[in-house]
Structures are given as structure tokens and as C-alpha cells.
Here is the input.
Amino acid sequence: MRDLLTTTTLSREDALAVLDTARELALLSDRPMKKLPTLRGRTVVNLFFEDSTRTRISFEAAAKRLSADVINFSAKGSSLSKGESLKDTALTLQAMGADAVVIRHGASGAAHRLATSGWMHGRVINAGDGTHEHPTQALLDAFTIRDHLRDGHGALDGLDVVIVGDVLHSRVARSNVWLLHTLGAHVTLVAPPTLLPVGVDSWPCDVSYDLDEVIGKADVVMMLRVQLERMNAAFFPSAREYSRRYGMDGLRMATMPDHALIMHPGPMNRGMEIAADVADAPRSVIVDQVTNGVYTRMAVLYLLLGGQEEA
Amino acid sequence: MAPDQQEFLTGSDINRAVVRIAHEIVERNRGADNLIVLGVPSRGVPLAKRIATAIGSIEGREVPVGSLDVAMYRDDLRLRPTVALSPTVIPGGDVTGRTVVLVDDVLFSGRTTRAALDALSDAGRPRAVQLAVLIDRGHRELPIRADYVGKNLPTAREDDVQVRLVELDGTDSVRLVRAGGN
Here is the structure.
């Protein structure tokens, strides 16, 4: 693994290596000395063209716990807002000696462009590109599912995962479908037809328009954020109707199997796709997802930067 | 057996070395009070368990035993492919104030032991750290020595010392594979 750009081509072996590494790192985290010396002298650049709180902070915490130097580069207040091209930014990062670049960009494919252009030598980690992919989110979701339902070991064979909501705009859904499929889980997407992307029938998953029909046998229900900021057309009649048909409330939660988990990648629209009492319910593992995000990103940084430089 | 590959220790040799090391540890520490035995993965871990069991049967009580992964502390990380992490298990969660016996299969350059000392200092502040190894093959690159040695094995730097343990490899043996193979 040179870069982490997508989960579609991530092998089962590599995915399990990330999860196993994250698990060992999680076990080390309850001791007083949380910092590891592993990436001392390495520089990780957080290159964020889009706003983000938890992903950027999570990557920053992960890199710092491994003793890497972290440079935060956000579009606001930098030359990026003056119209500098991705290429010129990449050349700048190369000149500064970035060993890894964590990139979030509004355009699908930006991370891939950065990694394959030859503009810079550093490893590239995709932290979300447009509506395309968000691989570390999928990995931390898989880690969280495995931790709760598989005792932290092995793959996810035989588990039923339902992903509900704005699949069209969701890089989280896309990355999860492929990763969970690779790890052996069975994924069902549930969304109004207007919020499903063209070509979804070629993804390795089932599609349903009826949440109540599939929720009864789900081991995991993953609620997606309704991305109002990306919606420039009417995708559903009203927030209330969306919430009634595709939102998770207490009544719906009660029809889930007892062991089943509720997940949400955050930030949540409480009252829209997820009711407040559901978000705070014991089976909701949303806070665990955030904690596990740091371990998973540490694992990715370690696996990409911890070894020999490739020629 | 090929002349370039000598069985240096058999299973019963290994057992005798483990029992002797256990006796030396008890003698040196005047018992097993406050003692904790930590193996360095991979083959230090089963050896640590054997040593702890042997100390236990001498002293008539259980000795805490665990493992200490050093992968994140190595100084040669950039010289080889990424190493998979192994579990670190510290019984009681803390080593502060205790006497730690580190256990590894082969002592060579001393770099693994250095990494283990660093890893240990992040896990707390032990009262003392002692080192037990099954084989000391020489060629130290750092000022490190073992407190307890199963066998000293004179080697050339390029030779390969292969330790096999039942728990991981199905058999107990130590072989010396001479470089060049002639």
C-alpha cells in the first residue's frame, strides 16, 4: 500500500492489516504515556480545501501521537483562497518535505490526481474527495463494527449492514459499501430514489426504498447525514417527510435486533436523519466512532510511513 | 544433517536452560516478590511464559507474565518494510516500582533490547530491568548485556540463528545456519 485513496481496490489483507494495527494501538492508549516515537522526524501535512472539524482533528491527533510533525494547511486564509492550483500547492508541499499529505477536497478525484501526478513524492491519504470516497471513515466504521460485534478480531463475514439516507452525496457510503463488501458483510442501501447515484446497481450491495422492511434483520444501521449544503435541487418534498420515512427514531429503533448498532459518521442533524434520543441511546456507537477514528488513522499513518521508503 | 546447519540446542537443552535461568532470577532477586516477566515478540513471549512458570514452581506461586511489543520503538523502521504490531500485555497495567525481567530469544546487536527499554519507559518506571535471553550470539552494536543467558553461541555476523519453539513452530530447537552454506 503506497497511498490510501479508495476502498474499492483495497485488498482484504490490507484492510485487515489496518484494523489489526489499529487494535494494538487502541490497547496502548489507556496508559499514561500516549505518545509513540515511531514517526519522529516525519512531516504530515493536513491539506484541507473543505471545512472539516473531526476528520482534521482526528488526523492531527493521530499524527501527533506517533510523534510526526503536523502542518495544517486549510483553504481559508492561505494562498489556496487566492486561486493557487492544486499543482502549485503540491510543488510547495514537496519543497517543504512533506512525507504524507492528508487531503480533503471538494472535487472527486483530487486525491488521486495528487497521488498520481508525480508532483510530489509523499504518500497521499484521501480524507474525502467530493462525493467520491472517504476511506479512513469506512475503516474506522469497520473497526467499530468489529469491536462491538466480532470481539475485535477477524473480518465481518455474515453481518448485515444497512446504510440509510443521502447516498448520492455520501463519500462515506461509497467507501463503506466497498470496504464492508471486501470484509464479507452484506450491505443494503436505503434511500429515496432521488438520493441514489446513477450506477448504484453495479455496486456490490442491495438497494431498498423501505427502511422498515430491512431494519428487522440488520446487525448495523448506519445513518448518513443529509448534506443540505450539496443540495441545489429538491430531492425530497420536505424535511418532515424525509425524517418520517428515512429517519431513525425511537419507535424504529425498537424494531431492530437487540444486539444491533446505530452509527453515524457525523456531524449529525439531530431531528432530521436521527432523533436526539436515538443518538444518545446505549446502542448508538457514534462517540466510539470518533475515538476509533484516531486509532484507525494512526494505523494508516504507521502502515504508510512506518517502513522503508520505496524507491 | 547438512554440515552447514547444526542443531545447537535440542528441546531438552532448552528446557534445562529455562529452568536454570529461572533459578538464577530467583537467586538474584531473593525470591519473586514484585517480579514481572515480559517477553519480546515473537519468540520471547512463549519463553517468558516458560520462565515465569518455572519461577512459579520454584517459589510456589504465580508470577505475572506478559508481552512488550517493540515495533513502534525500533531504530531501523525506515530500513525495512513495515512491521506488523504485536500485542503488548502488561499484567496489572503498570510496571512502576516493579522488577521487570525482559525475555528474548536471541541477543545480537542489542537494538531490539534498546527498543524494549524505550517501550518499557513509556509503560512506567520499573524499579529495575533485567534481561534474560536464550542465546547470546555476540556482535553487540550497543552497550547492552544480558543478566541471564541460556547459551553463548559464537557466530559470524552473517550466520543465521534459528530458534524454534513448540508454541509457535511445533518443535523446540536452536539451529545455527552458517553463512555461505558450504
About this structure: DSSP finds four helices and eight strands in chain B.
